[in-house]
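User: Could you go from structure to sequence for me? I need the amino acid at each position, not a summary. Structure tokens:
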């Protein structure tokens, strides 16, 4: 079985999570892990790379911002988790979107599921309350 298929098998076993799944996470640890694992591409202040809406010569979009100016908050927690764990192309393929060229690598071998959740909780904690409310509405009820 290919490693990608293993990741999909594991994810299908995960229950859907509601908006509050990131409540009471370790935000300090999430921030530290973000700086360590994510800031190189997504920016120290979650600002993303320049021209993040314009594909490069290989058809890959630069890393988007994770602050309120980006689109991270447009997505439900499950997709954000899968995108981080599996990488962009595989996470979207699991939802039926194929052929998407993504620069987002898989972090499944680098950081644990709990660490991914701490990072996502940290990112969400930086959004204005209005944006947090909108994003919470994109998640299934508990």
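Assistant: Here is the amino acid at each position, in order:
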């Amino acid at each position: 079985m290919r490693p990608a298929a293993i990741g999909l098998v594991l994810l299908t076993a995960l229950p859907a999570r509601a908006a509050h799944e990131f409540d009471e996470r370790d935000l300090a640890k999430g921030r530290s892990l973000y700086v360590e694992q994510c800031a190189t591409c997504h920016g120290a202040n979650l600002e993303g790379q320049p021209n993040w809406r314009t594909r490069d010569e290989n058809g890959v979009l630069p890393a988007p911002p994770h602050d309120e100016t980006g689109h991270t908050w447009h997505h439900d927690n499950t997709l954000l988790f899968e995108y981080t764990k599996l990488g962009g192309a595989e996470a979207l393929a699991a939802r039926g979107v194929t052929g998407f060229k993504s620069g987002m690598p898989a972090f499944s071998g680098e950081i644990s599921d709990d660490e991914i959740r701490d990072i996502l909780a940290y990112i969400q904690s930086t959004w204005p309350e209005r944006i947090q409310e909108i994003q919470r509405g994109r998640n299934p009820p508990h």
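One structural detail worth keeping in mind: Residues 3-15+27-136 form a domain with the Cytochrome Bc1 Complex; Chain D, domain 2 fold (CATH 1.10.760).
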